[in-house]
Design goal:
homodimer; four-stranded mixed beta sheet; Glutathione S-transferase Yfyf (Class Pi), Chain A, domain 2; Glutaredoxin; about 210 residues; 9 helices; alpha+beta
């Protein structure tokens, strides 16, 4: 297998997932800053031009970081970051989606329409007039998520899961692109500090070898 | 098990999924039009106020239609609408996410900020100035999806999957709320007609018994 890695939040989610799973997969780097991911070579790998992509041993390719993570968990169930049982996996996916559909995709799209506009306006349809509002929604829904966060250290209680990884990586990304979150949130503030102290948080900043 | 069903696209995705799986699960109806889903009774079931929710036999609840569908597929693998193998499931999840993150969530959010504004502005943060742009992105990305659609009858080639259900239900919803799509799209136009002719398309319009 081979991973197409890049300096971008979605590939970083996958890198942190791999570090937590203790999986090593060879990688090549795609320079998304210069638009290498929109050139024919990479588009033959993933016609969407998005990163990351996983090339399987049969030569086929799989895109979308969540789909890749789920696939690697099926091949390597332990340590479980989705879940050991159907019920655990269901709970993880529930929180993973709450994170993505309410918070991180708003951060993502608002970035495309604001700080990322010069890079993205020639690549994808952009909506600059939406940026401020989408940023506001992301922070509002993060407070909403904070209110639903239980007493456990993680989104799924005692279980550290992929949902934690995704939220952490996108909040950390937001910190650097005009979307800093409120560190005073009673649950997510301390949770973020716990996430930050994991070796995989620092380790995932660097591209795969 | 018990499903909390409602007149809304996400519960309809689940209804169509159940019909295609030939699964019958008892259901109760939540009146989202009058805001019953934002009242204490339902918030005790799902603190997000969103529908659908599945109550499990142990009394715990599971929300997010995709998480519920994945869970039911694990309990009842055949007919497979996610996949029989890890590779099939990965391919389905890849397309499911392309559908949701590029098209259907834009339809969803634009609806909240435009035609759905009177109902949603008191419930969730809204961004009316984003509505027109998000609608434009949804249709742009649908053309982009059309360009990646292969030669098979479905998103995953010969396999009919949950990704087809989700895209169909949301495009059908868009038709009724000022987000009609271009029926002339070379792949998705004929695909939509094929989807429309499935008994589950009509059957899923009605709430569960």
């Amino acid at each position: 297998m081979l991973i197409y890695d890049a300096h971008s939040p979605a590939p970083r989610c996958l890198r942190m997932f791999l570090l937590e799973k203790r999986l090593e997969i060879p990688a090549v780097r795609v320079d998304v800053m210069t638009g290498e991911n929109r050139e024919p070579g990479y588009l033959a790998v993933n016609p969407t031009g998005q990163t990351p992509t996983l090339r399987l041993d049969d030569g086929s390719t799989l895109s979308e970081a969540v789909a890749i993570a789920e696939y690697l968990e099926e091949l390597h169930p332990t340590p479980a970051l989705v879940g050991h049982t159907a019920e655990e996996r269901a709970q993880t996916r529930q929180w993973w989606r709450r994170v993505e559909l309410n918070v991180t995709e708003f951060i993502h799209n608002a970035y495309h329409y604001a700080e990322g506009l010069p890079r993205f306006e020639s690549r994808i349809p952009v909506v600059p007039e939406a940026a401020a509002g989408l940023k506001r929604v992301a922070q509002d829904r993060l407070r909403w998520l904070d209110g639903m966060f239980g007493d456990g250290p993680y989104l799924c209680g005692d279980r550290f899961t992929a949902a934690d990884i995704w939220l952490y990586v996108w909040l950390d990304f937001g910190n650097g692109v005009g979307q800093a979150f409120d560190r005073g949130l009673p649950r997510i503030g301390p949770w973020f500090n716990r996430m930050e102290s994991r070796p995989s948080a620092e380790g995932s900043r660097a591209l795969l070898a």
